[in-house]
Each structure stands twice: as C-alpha cells, then as structure tokens.
Amino acid sequence: MAQAWKCAGLRWSAEGPELMWDGGRRSPLSWGKRVSFAVVEGGVRECAGARGHACPRRVVVPGRSAGGRCEECARLDRAHSVAADRVADDPRLYRVYLAWFGPGLVKVGITAVERGSVRLLEQGAVCFSWLGSGPLMATRRTEELLRAALRVPDRIPYAEKRAVRAALPEAREERAAEIRDVYARAVELDGWPESLERAPFLPVDHVRAFGLAGAPAALAEVGELVPGAAVSGELVAAAGPDLHLATPDGVVVLDTRLMRGWRLVPATGGEPAFPVRHFEVEADHRQDGLF
Questions:
Q1: DSSP per residue, 91-144
Q2: Tens of pLDDT along 63-72?
C-alpha cells in the first residue's frame, strides 16, 4: 500500500500557495500542476488539533467540517486568536483593511503589520486596501466603527466568496470600485481612534496572484471528502484555501481545509470522485509525493 500523508492545510507566501503536511513537508503549487489524491479506503477523519498540537483524544470529525476540529480543540484554537477579542495586550502593530471578494462582498478586518498582505491572500481577497495602522485595540475600535456605522461585516462565508468568483469584472478599476466607495464613506466618519495612523486609498489586486485572469470559471465545489474516493485535476487557479481544478467535468473548487485529518494516498484512477455541489451563479457571467 502507498504511503499515506496527512495534510496540514494550504499556506500562502509571496511565492504563491503551497500545501503543508504533517511532519513539515511542503508541496509548492503552480498553475498547470496536477493535483491528484485519494482518501484511504475505510479511513476516518481525525481532529486536526489546535495551535500545532495533536488532538489528545483523536476525535473523529465530520467530513463536511471546514475547521476539521473537535469542539474542545476548536475552542482552544479560538481562545488564542486575535479574532476572538481576548488578546487585548498584544504589543504588535496591526493594520485595518477593506477587502473585496466579488460583487456585493466587502468586509473589514485586521492583521498584524509583520504579516504584510498574507492574511488577505489566505482569505481569498480579490482586491483590498489598507485603512490605517496602530495598536491592536485601536484597530479593533476602527473595525467596530465601520461595522456599526456602515454595516460592513467582519466575516464573509467562504461559500459566498467562491460562488461569486465567476462574476468578477474584467477591469481592475471595477474590482476596486466597491471598496473605494466604502473607504470614502469611512474616512468621513467621526470616532476614529487618535492612535490609528490613517492610510491613503491604494487598492491591491490579487487576480493575477490567484491565477484568475483568463482562467475558466468554476462550476462546482467538492462538498466533502469520503473514504475510497478521489479527485484529480490540473490546477488553474487558487484563492484563499481554495484550489480550482480542471477536471473532465469542468473546473471544480476544492477547499483544502476539508483535507485536514484524512490519510491521503496517490490516486490510481479507478476511484469514484468526491461528491460535488454545483454553483447557482451562471458560469458565463465571468470573462474570459502526492504533488
């Protein structure tokens, strides 16, 4: 039997996306590369653990769980996250940003200055601009100001993000239009923290970084991984945790978070495909180891 590997998720850097594996192995990804793997027959999906530590109880988790963690590990992971609002004394500098994921999808968020724009790549932001930088609590207050005054959310489900990628405007200026409008309204608000250094509107576009320029539109997404089944396709684009794979049935999106916790082996070609869900967005709205 072929050696099985456990995926630790997708990581983004200035060089592009790469799959991470338990034990430290990395698989850099590039457009045109074939991604092909199967789940071990009879296997189960174990909790991915928290903060770099394995789940002590090795809890079996559902195949459709994007987090891939049991309740206890999920609670532990979030308790140490800046997003949980429980880390008030972090001495690092943070940035507030506006991110756009597709028509009608704008969010506000924060990220540590030392991380650069990696957080925006990880979230699949098609376009973004900084609002300002400062201490953690100042950026938190700015984020809350936009949520309360302009009703800009701080979270957008990945299912919504991937469903609208088939409807991205062709022009860079059009892709920046919605965050330009929100930015203009945001800077007119009263109540900005004095310790926040404001940033000018300078939109950054990720269409080329994600490989979406000229890529065929995705028609469906993998709903879950199941034992004995497989996926195989040519990588045509990637955004956030999603890989866009060209298969004989069209381009399918694979959320790599679904891979965590499974034992994976090279596909032989005889396995059934993972179940998929088709998008409601029309495809013609868009312009034109294991690995």
A1: -SEEEEEEEEEETTEEEEEEEEGGGTTHHHHHHT-SEEEEEEEEEHHHHHHHHH
A2: 988 888 999 9
